Amino acid sequence: MGEFDIVHSHSHFYFSTNLASLISKITDTNLVITNHGFFSQTAPSSIENVYNNTIGKLTLNSAVRVFCYTPRAKNILREHNITSPIEIISNGVNCKVFTSKDEKDKNRQILFVGRLKNGKRPDALIRGFGKIADEYPNYQLKIVGDGPMFSDLKALCDEQNIQDKVTFTGELPYDEMPDVYRQSDLLVLPTETEAAIPRVVMEAWACETPAIMPNIQEIDSETFKKGGLLCDGSPDEIYDAVCQLIEDDQLCSTLGSAGRGIVQEKYSWEDTVKKTTETYYEVING
Known about the structure:
Blueprint: E1 6-10, H1 15-27, E2 30-34, H2 45-52, H3 55-61, E3 65-68, H4 71-79, E4 86-88, E5 109-113, H5 122-135, E6 140-144, H6 150-159, E7 166-170, H7 177-182, E8 186-188, H8 199-206, E9 211-214, H9 221-224, E10 228-231, H10 235-246, H11 249-266, H12 269-285
Parallel strand pairs: 1-2, 2-3, 3-4, 5-6, 5-8, 6-7, 8-9, 9-10
Helix pairs in contact: 1-3, 5-10, 8-11
């Protein structure tokens, strides 16, 4: 690491970031860490609390800069005694790659994109879709991603007799994702926690696809409601929110268009790159 001006790591939960923290102290290398949320989606709360107050705290406090996506995320770190300098730099999406949809892109498809693990709650979506499939038999569910819940989710589809309406693609190449978003009527992400409005939501918005997700504390709910619907993440509320968009084409179109406007105004890739690069130079020169 000593041969580099800056080493940029992601999330204090990764062992590679813990190791980078240790080596940065030995070699006097500038370490920058992007905070992807202070709380884990998988670890038991008792273990998480011990980790965050020991290894996690030491790792984050070893950084010369910590990047957070939102002021709320910064406040959470300060509340947990993270003293490193913090820069708020939002995630960004390339709107020249993730472009608007047109009429031919409408496929009557509901979309999930994410890791198939408990914290993302894809099972809640599948349970909600079980009711949707009965009322709207022309709709399909596409699940993009892989993870430890894959077998259980397949079994859940069999249990609800919707296996012919649900497609599991596994992980897809990044350059295929714009078409996946454009071909979907809406994105549903029932996640328990995030560091900010998730990147997959921003990508969907850039393609004028509205989103549904829980009203978790880390997101800017007022911004989100301009491009999607909030719910509590339960199967019943997912069902209600999806039905609302299915039955109201104008609302679906309005939210999708507004979502793209939000990304262009607040989450452009160009701004993210510019602010990140400026911070790198501040670190090197300071």
